[in-house]
Amino acid sequence: MIDNTPRILLHYSDIEKVRDTLAAALAFHAHRDEMNAQVHLAAKCRFSPLTSELTAALERMNKWLKPEEEAEDE
């Protein structure tokens, strides 16, 4: 079977930048959701779908990078 999947060269620092950007976006949107809950005197903060998606994406990125970071620590 021939694999015609295009190959993309990514540097580890580029992936870290994406992860840091995701973390910043998550922090911003989570804070916005919490402030919105306070404004409306909500008993509980309900996070927006965007915040949930950013959380999932950041967790996925951290899982991808974890083996690399463990190898660097050794």
By oligomeric state, this entry counts as: single chain
Determine the N-to-C terminus distance.
37 Å
Number of helices: 2
SSE-based structural type: mainly alpha
Shape: elongated
Largest sheet: none
The average pLDDT is 88
Q: Catalogue the unreliable spans.
A: none
Tell me the series of helices and strands, N- to C-terminal: HH
Strand content: under 5%
DSSP E strands, number: 0
The percentage helix is over 70%
What Rg, in angstroms, do the CA atoms define? 17 Å
State the gist of this model.
The protein has 74 residues and is mainly α. Helix content is 72%, strand content 0%.
Please tag this protein with its features:
74 residues, mainly alpha, 2 helices, 72% helix, elongated
Kindly describe this structure.
This protein is mostly helical. The chain has a domain at 17-63. Helices cover 72% and strands 0% of the residues. It has helices at residues 12-39, 49-73. The longest helix is centred in the middle third of the chain and has 28 residues, at 12-39.
Topology (SSEs and partners):
Blueprint: H1 12-39, H2 49-73
Helix pairs in contact: 1-2
